[in-house]
Amino acid sequence: MAGRYTIDAATQTPRRLYEAENNLLKQYTKELEKLEQALRRQSAPNSDKNKPNENEEIPRKPSTPNKKGNQIIQIGPNGTKLTEKRYGKVNFSSYRSATRDLSYKIFGEKVLATHTLSGSRGPRAVSQNKPTKEQLKPASVEDIVHHVQSRFAVEQSQVLQVIRRACRNSALAQERKKKEAQCPKSLQLKVIFSSK
């Protein structure tokens, strides 16, 4: 009975072929996992993308007092500075929150609302005939990117995306405030949901 083998009733395929396929799949899966681990080690050798690099020294210049007596901290090579009090309020739990907080502390909400990273109009602004916005200070943007990358293992594009989102959110909030200011309170409607 050496030539006999069992056959799957539904597909008429010998079982040994299924077993061979399963063994190959397991082998390839193990090899893929090894390659993925090697890639992860190469791209972020010290940490996870969202966790601070605790082993690395945070490159920032020592603080110096300003005219009001507040300590000033330089966060990047281009000389962008924050007071120690404002820097202390930055949330460094993730690169997103750190980037967003640094953007708001350095530029302010009004500047973020009226500026963009590139200073050029996007396709939506062109189609709606909106004016061109000014460019954020490239040196300050570079300092934010530098500082966030020194604390987290992230790409420059990820940090820039968070700054873009901060600009967009500020612009939308400013538009909302303008619309609310233009509409008299007597005409503002409150939506009330009633349960039936």
Automatic annotation (TrEMBL):
InterPro entries: BEN_domain. Residues 48-60 have a biased composition (Basic and acidic residues). Residues 77-174 form the BEN domain. PROSITE patterns: BEN. GO terms for molecular function: DNA binding. It comes from the Eukaryota. Residues 63-73 have a biased composition (Polar residues). Residues 36-80 are annotated as: Disordered. This is BEN domain-containing protein. It comes from Drosophila navojoa (Fruit fly). The lineage of its organism: Eukaryota, Metazoa, Ecdysozoa, Arthropoda, Hexapoda.
